[in-house]
Amino acid sequence: MDTFHIVLVEPQIPQNTGNIGRLCVATDSILHLIHPLGFSVEQKELKRAGLDYWQNLQVYEWQNLKEFWEKHPINERHFFFSTKAKKLYYQADFSQGGFLYFGREDRGLDSSLAESARAYRLPMVKGIRSVNLATSVGAALYEGLRQLGSYKQWEH
């Protein structure tokens, strides 16, 4: 596979999704949006956060996770990110690429995914509820790219 697919499950804030879209273009990753969304993909805040990169983004929309999983069945290349996870994100084996899942900003992923054996979290000091969705995606994605080694072709 050796590419990354960012899967946003019911994202609510257009600026976060726009920023993540821009990140996907910069890393040659693919963005999947799982409905329902908390905004329209035509919303100006989404496009503004994605700047002029949005037209270069590989983005797909899915009605729900069931529809997504019919096309991309869960296997060892599916990674779920949650503050509820026990394992840290750098413990995941991203060396073959994969699907990186992130939940909606106000409640994260469903607990069945957030507490699964394939769930990971970013380390944070005690008392902090979470970091911004786009920050979480960036940290996990760049760790994956580091493991994959594909970033080396982009260095200048």
TrEMBL record:
<dbReference type="InterPro" id="IPR029026">
    <property type="entry name" value="tRNA_m1G_MTases_N"/>
</dbReference>
<protein>
    <recommendedName>
        <fullName>Putative tRNA (cytidine(34)-2'-O)-methyltransferase</fullName>
        <ecNumber>2.1.1.207</ecNumber>
    </recommendedName>
</protein>
<keyword id="KW-0489">Methyltransferase</keyword>
<dbReference type="InterPro" id="IPR001537">
    <property type="entry name" value="SpoU_MeTrfase"/>
</dbReference>
<dbReference type="GO" id="GO:0005737">
    <property type="term" value="C:cytoplasm"/>
</dbReference>
<keyword id="KW-0808">Transferase</keyword>
<keyword id="KW-0963">Cytoplasm</keyword>
<keyword id="KW-0819">tRNA processing</keyword>
<dbReference type="GO" id="GO:0003723">
    <property type="term" value="F:RNA binding"/>
</dbReference>
<feature type="binding site">
    <location>
        <position position="103"/>
    </location>
    <ligand>
        <name>S-adenosyl-L-methionine</name>
    </ligand>
</feature>
<dbReference type="Pfam" id="PF00588">
    <property type="entry name" value="SpoU_methylase"/>
</dbReference>
<comment type="function">
    <text>Could methylate the ribose at the nucleotide 34 wobble position in tRNA.</text>
</comment>
<comment type="similarity">
    <text>Belongs to the class IV-like SAM-binding methyltransferase superfamily. RNA methyltransferase TrmH family. TrmL subfamily.</text>
</comment>
<feature type="binding site">
    <location>
        <position position="130"/>
    </location>
    <ligand>
        <name>S-adenosyl-L-methionine</name>
    </ligand>
</feature>
<keyword id="KW-0949">S-adenosyl-L-methionine</keyword>
<dbReference type="GO" id="GO:0002130">
    <property type="term" value="P:wobble position ribose methylation"/>
</dbReference>
<feature type="domain" description="tRNA/rRNA methyltransferase SpoU type">
    <location>
        <begin position="4"/>
        <end position="142"/>
    </location>
</feature>
<dbReference type="InterPro" id="IPR016914">
    <property type="entry name" value="TrmL"/>
</dbReference>
<dbReference type="GO" id="GO:0008175">
    <property type="term" value="F:tRNA methyltransferase activity"/>
</dbReference>
<dbReference type="GO" id="GO:0008757">
    <property type="term" value="F:S-adenosylmethionine-dependent methyltransferase activity"/>
</dbReference>
<dbReference type="InterPro" id="IPR029028">
    <property type="entry name" value="Alpha/beta_knot_MTases"/>
</dbReference>
<feature type="binding site">
    <location>
        <position position="122"/>
    </location>
    <ligand>
        <name>S-adenosyl-L-methionine</name>
    </ligand>
</feature>
